[in-house]
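Lab channel / #folding
Pinned by the channel admin:
"Please post every new chain as: sequence first, then the structure tokens as a reply. Keep commentary short and put observations after the output so the thread stays searchable."

First post following the new format, from NK:
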Amino acid sequence: MVQEVVRTVKITTASEVLTDVPPVSEGFPMRKWSVRVSLVGPNGEELPANVFDKVTYKLHPTFQNPNRTLKKPPFKLEEQGWGEFDLTVVLHVVDKGGEHTVIHDLNFIEPTYDVTHKLTFPTSRPILAKILAESGPVPEDISVITPTTSTTPAPEEPKKEKRKHETTEVSKKKTKHEKTNIDMDKLAEGLEKLGEDDLLKVVQMVTENKSPEMYIKNDIEEGEFHLDLYTLPEGLLKMLWDFVKKRADI
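Reply from TO:
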């Protein structure tokens, strides 16, 4: 079962009358208004809504280009109008963590007002879990790690069994190396050069493509992620190689 945490998302609306623009009709002045998104921290403080990589606002169909997408916190939308309406807000979670849709009552009763929503977020995505830790606690059993990359080999078999499989294992490694045409030493070196965010992407990539023959050890207490590159399937090796080549000098 995928574990989740709850965060409070705040939508803030501000408006003011445009005195230099004639009203549409009596009692309906033109206004400048804005909507923005933030998080509420553990102590009630306002935090950037960096758990989202974009926010889509679906305005009343009378607006020109009613669907607006913003990709940077605070995802502030600014517009002009005279009418109140229900604004659909689609919040896209980072790291392919899904999306949330809320209906926001856009009104002009108060010049500024906040509306909060309790939303749930999965903790199984490494990058998302790291970001969630910046705005509140996450369960201990899904603690965010700062991974280091290792080519630690898989544990050796007992000596009496090792002799039986020794030739097969060496041949297997040699075949994988020749088949992928990837310099394993350079790949390991490149992984060591990656920054923390890129390492988290590597962890996610490996985890999502995990197969029984792969040797992976996630040492949460030490904050380390070990893998034997020679046990990775051809497709995953190529993915890692392409990823590392774009981000490290190898």
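NK: Residues 149 and 191 are 6 Å apart (CA to CA).
TO: also worth noting, The chain is about 25% helix and 30% strand.
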